[in-house]
């Protein structure tokens, strides 16, 4: 079974609009962390935002926020006021357990922002 | 500060040749990860090290792949002999800590094409 599921292969949005990228996860471990990374066409992986399973509030970083719904096991990324530079592939990832393991990545969602 | 440095950025080789990819992690980071990215399989963890010791190599596809970390500032991923199906982007990443919250810092990747 997939640990991280991103069901939207592609999303299209106009500049200045908000967009939500979906991510659901599967784990039985009570301790885990959720991450979002951005991969522009140049190929590098850029860390955007982190949410811990015990965090009481949704994480925010500038225009990025994470809509964390623990009971639904979802960790959707919300980008407010989209910009042309937001066009990229976005990956949701999870790490399980206190001891620490590597990140497991979803398949990604391609976001296209138009003017 | 310098980020994770990978070399070469691009490698084109013929089937059967040996390929060596190199990585210099961020100074002071205890963890080093090798990932492979393909269109079909997305981002897959190959192996990761903690303090130069391999912790989990279950993602290494087969005996043709090997990875070493002789010291804290250098790691190699070797493929011998290479095959066309090894064509992918190989990312190295490092992390200061791998509790649940430790983010990974990625290099720019090595794009490998095996003809």
Brief synopsis:
The complex is a heterodimer of chains A (115) and B (115). Chain A has 115 residues and is mainly beta. In chain A, 0% of the residues lie in helices and 50% in strands.
Summarize the structure in words:
The complex is a heterodimer of chains A (115) and B (115). Chain A has 115 residues and is an all-beta fold. Chain A is built from no helices and twelve strands. Chain A starts with a strand and ends with a strand. The model of chain A has no long low-confidence stretch (mean pLDDT 94). By secondary structure, chain B is an all-beta fold. Helix content of chain B is 0%, strand content 54%. Chain B contains no helices and eleven strands. In chain B, strands 2, 4, 5, 6, 9, 10 and 11 form a seven-stranded mixed sheet that branches. In chain B, a hairpin with a 2-residue loop joins strand 7 and strand 8. Classes of the chains: A mainly beta (115), B mainly beta (115).
Which geometry of chain A do the CA atoms define? globular
Task: Note the overall shape of chain B.
Answer: globular
Q: Main sheet of chain B?
A: 7 strands, mixed
The helical percent of chain B reads: under 10%
Q: Give a count of the beta strands of chain B, DSSP E runs of length 2 or more.
A: 11
H and E order of chain A: EEEEEEEEEEEE
Termini of chain A, distance in Å?
38 Å
Helix tally of chain A equals 0
* Total of DSSP H or I helical runs spanning 4+ residues of chain B: 0
- The poorly predicted ranges of chain A are none
């Amino acid at each position: 079974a997939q640990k991280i599921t991103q069901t939207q292969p592609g999303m299209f949005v106009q500049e200045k609009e908000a967009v939500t990228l979906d991510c659901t996860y599967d784990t039985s471990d009570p301790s885990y962390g959720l991450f979002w990374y951005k991969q522009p066409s140049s190929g590098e992986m850029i860390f955007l935002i982190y949410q811990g399973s015990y965090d009481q509030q949704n994480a925010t970083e500038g225009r990025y926020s994470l809509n964390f719904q623990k009971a639904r096991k979802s960790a959707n990324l919300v980008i407010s006021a989209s910009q042309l530079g937001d066009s990229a592939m976005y990956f949701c990832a999870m790490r399980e357990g206190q001891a620490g393991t590597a990140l497991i990545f979803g398949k990604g969602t391609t976001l296209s922002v138009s003017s | 500060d310098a980020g994770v440095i990978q070399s070469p950025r691009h490698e084109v080789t013929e089937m059967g040749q040996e390929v060596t990819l190199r990585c210099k992690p961020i100074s002071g980071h205890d963890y080093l990860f090798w990932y492979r990215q393909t269109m079909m399989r997305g981002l897959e963890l190959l192996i990761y090290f903690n303090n130069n010791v391999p912790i989990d190599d279950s993602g290494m596809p087969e005996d043709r792949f090997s990875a070493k970390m002789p010291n804290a500032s250098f790691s190699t991923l070797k493929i011998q002999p290479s095959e066309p199906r090894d064509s992918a982007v190989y990312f190295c990443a490092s992390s200061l800590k791998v509790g649940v919250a430790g983010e990974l810092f990625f290099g720019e990747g090595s794009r490998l094409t095996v003809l």
